[in-house]
Specification:
Elements lengths: L1 H16 L17 E3 L8 E5 L1 H10 L5 E4 L4 E4 L3 E2 L4 E6 L10 E4 L6 E4 L4 E6 L2 E4 L7 E4 L9 E12 L8 E4 L6 E8 L5
Parallel strand pairs: 1-3, 2-4, 3-6, 4-7, 5-8, 6-9, 7-10, 8-11, 9-12, 10-12, 11-13, 12-14
Length: 196
């Protein structure tokens, strides 16, 4: 009975101590996983508009801890390289399938660079987003997740989408350049004719 009374007294004192009479401002600690809807940053995904500025703005909004980039659906044209180098835990997600329907990013880049540079990234996932290059003069690597000695890329996942050339785009060296990448997972992903 004494323990029960002591517990009730403690409970009552805690209730009084935690009663607020004014609004409280408390810090919010972001542990990553925020969702960044690319449409809010200017991605139209109508199949004709160059959405490069919208994608670049979305990536610029990401904290170093990364987050989820939500593809708005449809076909997004991007005529610029997207750089995700050295970020942590970036998930680009959409509604595509391994058959390539749904959310797509079509790169019109040329030359020998990469469509997406994600060097030394620590966690990259494309889930439900198909990624294509469309230029016959593109001879680079679609997604470059290469690491450097002592700073490896970790945990790259391509899932539920297609990755490769489309139309005249057949010249890429690699769909996924994964030098010094520790873990690469392909889950219901279709990679066209290039090496990975």
């Amino acid at each position: 009975k004494t323990r029960a009374l002591a517990a009730e007294a403690l409970k009552a004192s805690l209730a009084v101590a935690n009663t607020f009479t004014q609004p409280q401002t408390l810090p919010v600690i972001d542990k990553g996983g925020q969702v960044f809807n690319a449409k809010a940053y200017g991605v139209v995904a109508d199949g004709t508009t160059n959405d490069a500025a919208g994608w670049l703005a979305t990536i610029a909004a990401l904290p170093a801890r990364g987050g989820i980039i939500e593809h708005p659906g449809g076909i997004s044209i991007c005529n610029s390289q997207l750089v995700l180098d050295s970020l942590v835990d970036v998930n680009v997600r959409g509604s595509s399938t391994k058959h390539g329907t749904g959310a797509q990013i079509r790169f019109g880049v040329t030359g020998s660079g990469s469509c997406i540079s994600a060097k030394n990234i620590q966690g990259l996932r494309f889930d439900g987003v198909s990624v294509y290059y469309t230029s016959g003069s593109f001879t680079g690597d679609m997604i470059d997740v290469s690491g450097t000695v002592g700073n490896n890329t970790n945990f790259v996942t391509l899932s539920h989408g297609r990755f490769g050339g489309l139309g005249s785009g057949t010249g890429a060296r690699n769909v996924l350049l994964a030098v010094d990448a520790l873990v690469t997972v392909l889950d219901e992903a279709w990679l066209s004719g290039a090496q990975y």
